[in-house]
Amino acid sequence: MSASRPNRSSRPPGWGAPLRLVLRLAVMGIGLGVISGTALKLLAPHLADGTSSTTPPGQQPLERLSASQPLPSGIALGRFEPKTELTALSQKWAQLAARHKDLQASGYLLVLDDGRFAQLQADKALPAASSIKTPILLAGLEELDTGKLRWNEPLTLTKEVVGGGAGWMASKPVGSRFPFWEAATEMIRVSDNSATNLLIKRLGGKTALNARFQAMGLHATVINNWLPDLKGTNTTSSLDLAHSIAMVDTGEMLSPRARDLFRGVMGTSRTNTLLPLGMLMGLGGDSADPDSALLAHGVTVLNKTGDIGIAYADGGLIELPNGQRAVAAFMVKGPFNDPRSTGLIRAMAAEVARTLIGKPGGTAPAANR
User: Disulfide: which of 104, 141, 151, 285 matches 280 by Cβ 3.0-4.6 Å?
Assistant: First the structure.
């Protein structure tokens, strides 16, 4: 007869049950510690800057923002997008032009930050003179951006490209070589016509450049002859001049490095007696050095003029004292060397300064505050 198994209920009490209870409590404690530590780690940034879980997402009070939070991305570049016409300014330009029935005038202004604009026959094609050098510079830097030419690439002076008038390169022997950067700079700095022709040839010639201008949307900009083109066969418009500058500043064309080169070259221009001087006159000033005088008003103008006697032009980027940027361009065709032509451009530019900046010693217009 086999021995019967002992009854479990009859076993004497031991330490098994208390040990199991202790082990369970230890495991639970460790788990709670891990959970609490994780929660505290997640809440620590909010507790440090004074926020709590009750703050609605995305609605932290400004005074509680942590120093580690990212700052806004920066100032927008603006767009070439006209939105609101400055009617009074457009009408003022029309009144100024109407005083001279024998002059053909054109003007365009656009504030890149907010789309305010003014216009006077802005898309009318007129003799470009040297103002066409701005879109030529743009085309050259686009080639640089795509790697199709080098900044220091030598350009050879040939009889075909030697141009009279402004500049010094025409005085150099045929066969002389100039780096691309020097030709581009002298084209703007002293409006060198031979330097300009060097660029036209290097960029494929007149036909190729005209096709590129059309692709850029510069529909009135056409090169028909080498510079200086005293007969005024090369054309552009105030809208095209303003647009060619805006495409760079808004980032529509050129990389940041090429954009800096564009601004650097434009900043070398010596002639400042049209758009810059007109802006200064609108602020109640007058100076033999308008660029320096404008700095005292918080204004910088990067511009390129044109002058062939029968036609004058000036287009530039205007940096305003409130941080905004605008592009403006003016063109006038009239009798040879008629001072009314340059006077009209300065008068229209003066109205721009009065509209965008305000009266001398006064406050800026409400739209700019």
Answer: 285
d(CA 108, CA 55) in angstroms, rounded, equals: 49
**Which residues, at least 6 apart from 160, have a Cβ–Cβ distance to it below 8 Å?**
197, 201, 226
**Alpha carbon distance 290, 93 (integer Å):** 22
The span from the CA of 122 to the CA of 55, in Å, is 53
146 contacts 155 by C-beta, under 8 angstroms: no
Q: Which two tokens stand for residue 140?
A: 């050259």
pLDDT at 358: 81
Strand ranges for the chain from DSSP E: 84-85, 104-111, 116-120, 126-127, 154-156, 177-179, 235-236, 300-307, 311-319, 325-333
* Rounded distance between C-alpha atoms, residue 298 and residue 89, angstroms: 22
Residues 264, 258: Cα–Cα separation, whole Å: 10
CA–CA gap between residue 140 and residue 188 (Å, rounded): 13
Q: With contact defined as beta carbons under 8 Å apart, do 352 and 282 qualify?
A: yes
β-strand 84-85 against 177-179: which pairing, if any?
Answer: unpaired
Contacts of 13 (CB under 8 A, 6+ apart): none
Count of beta carbons in the 10 Å neighbourhood of residue 324: 17
With 0-12 CB in 10 A as exposed, 13-18 as middle and 19+ as buried, what is 277? buried
304 neighbors 314 (Cβ within 8 angstroms): yes
Number of neighbouring beta carbons within 10 Å of residue 363: 10
Query: Over 50: is that where the pLDDT of 5 sits?
Result: no
pLDDT at 282 over 70: yes
pLDDT in tens, 321-343: 999 999 999 999 999 999 999 99
User: Domain 84-356 carries which CATH code?
Assistant: 3.40.710.10
Q: How far apart are CA 196 and CA 236, in angstroms?
A: 16
- CA distance linking residue 39 with residue 229, whole number of Å: 77
Check pLDDT > 90 for residue 306.
Answer: yes
Burial 106-135 (b: 16+ CB within 10 A, else e): bbbbbbbbbebbbbbbbebbbbbbbbbbbb
